């Protein structure tokens, strides 16, 4: 099975990193290939659909400030974000993606996106 895992330490609290990455209007600020992202619900929860130029991803697992998982039901791609506090002002963010059937990923998330995310918090 082909997987992609990215780990990065960000100088911000878990809550701040979680809230920023979960918010669809922030996605274009750190993922260059996304011009706009929307969600299907007012409040993000299990079943919420994120939509952008890559397709639709459903929230299939969610634990506030700790973890969320998105699944593309059409392609079988699953990606997850895990947040681990290092201390009150640092968070380790782990991104992991794979295809349910074990096939090759149609495209991988780039490490440079996470470096850009880290820079956004450095500038705050």
At a glance:
By secondary structure, the protein is an alpha+beta fold. Helix content is 21%, strand content 40%. It has a 7-stranded antiparallel beta sheet with strand order 1-7-6-5-4-3-2, covered by helices on one side.
| Gyration radius from CA atoms, angstroms | 14 Å
Largest sheet: 7 strands, antiparallel
CATH superfamily: START domain
CATH topology annotation: Alpha-D-Glucose-1,6-Bisphosphate, Chain A, domain 4
CATH architecture identity? 2-Layer Sandwich
N-end to C-end Cα span: 38 Å
Helix and strand run: EHHEEEEEEH
| Strand portion | 35-45%
Overall residue-averaged pLDDT value = 95
Shape: globular
CATH class designation: Alpha Beta
Number of helices: 3
Fraction in helix: 10-25%
Estimated structural class: alpha+beta
Number-wise, the strands total 7
- Structurally, the number of domains stands at 1
The low-pLDDT segments are: none
Q: Strand order across the biggest sheet? A: 1-7-6-5-4-3-2
Write the layout of secondary structure elements.
Layout: E1 3-10, H1 14-22, H2 27-30, E2 38-39, E3 49-52, E4 55-63, E5 67-71, E6 77-87, E7 90-99, H3 111-123
Antiparallel strand pairs: 1-7, 2-3, 3-4, 4-5, 5-6, 6-7
Overview of this protein structure:
The chain is an alpha+beta fold. The chain has one domain: Alpha-D-Glucose-1,6-Bisphosphate, Chain A, domain 4 (2-Layer Sandwich). 21% of the residues lie in helices and 40% in strands. The chain has three helices and seven strands, in the order βααββββββα. It has helices at 14-22, 27-30, 111-123, and strands at residues 3-10, 38-39, 49-52, 55-63, 67-71, 77-87, 90-99. It has a seven-stranded antiparallel β-sheet, with helices on one face.
């Amino acid at each position: 099975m082909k997987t992609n895992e990215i780990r990065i330490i960000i100088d911000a609290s878990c809550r701040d990193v979680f809230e920023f990455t979960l918010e669809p209007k922030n996605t274009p600020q750190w993922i260059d290939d996304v011009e706009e992202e929307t969600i299907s619900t007012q409040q993000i929860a299990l079943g919420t659909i994120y939509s952008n130029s890559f397709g639709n991803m459903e929230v299939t697992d969610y634990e506030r400030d700790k973890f969320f998982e998105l699944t593309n039901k059409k392609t079988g791609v699953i990606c997850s974000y895990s947040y681990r506090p290092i201390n009150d002002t640092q968070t380790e963010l782990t991104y992991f993606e794979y295809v349910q059937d074990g096939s090759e990923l149609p495209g991988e998330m780039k490490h440079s996106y996470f470096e850009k995310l880290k820079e956004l918090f450095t500038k705050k």
